[in-house]
Amino acid sequence: MISNGIDLVEIEKVEKAIESESFRKRVYGEAELRELENKRAESYAAAFCAKEAFSKAVGTGLSGFDLREVEVLHDENGKPFFKLSGRAKELADELSFDFALSLTHTKDYAAAMVTAFTGEK
Description:
By secondary structure, the chain is of the alpha+beta class.
C-alpha cells in the first residue's frame, strides 16, 4: 500500500509564528528544536509542512496526533527523516507504514512531500 501527502506554506507566516515560544513548543519536538535552533525560518517552515504532509499520508488530519510527535530530523548526509513518538508512532505502526520524506523551499514558500508505504524498502 502507498499513500501520499503534500503541503505548501508561506515562509513569512511561519517566520512570524516562530517568534512565539508557545508556538514553537506546541509544534516542534525537543530534538527537532535542538536541530532547528540556529536555522532560518525556511527550515521551520519545511518541518511544519512535513507534519501536515504526514497527517495527509496517514489519513488523520492534524487531529490524529500531537504535532510534536512528528519530528523532522536529518541524517549525517542531510537527508530528512521522521522521528515518531506517541500517537503518531502508533498510527504508523498500526498501518505498517514506513516513510519517504522530501523537503524544499524557495524564497517565499516551503513544501514537503511524504510517501507512506508498506513492504520492502
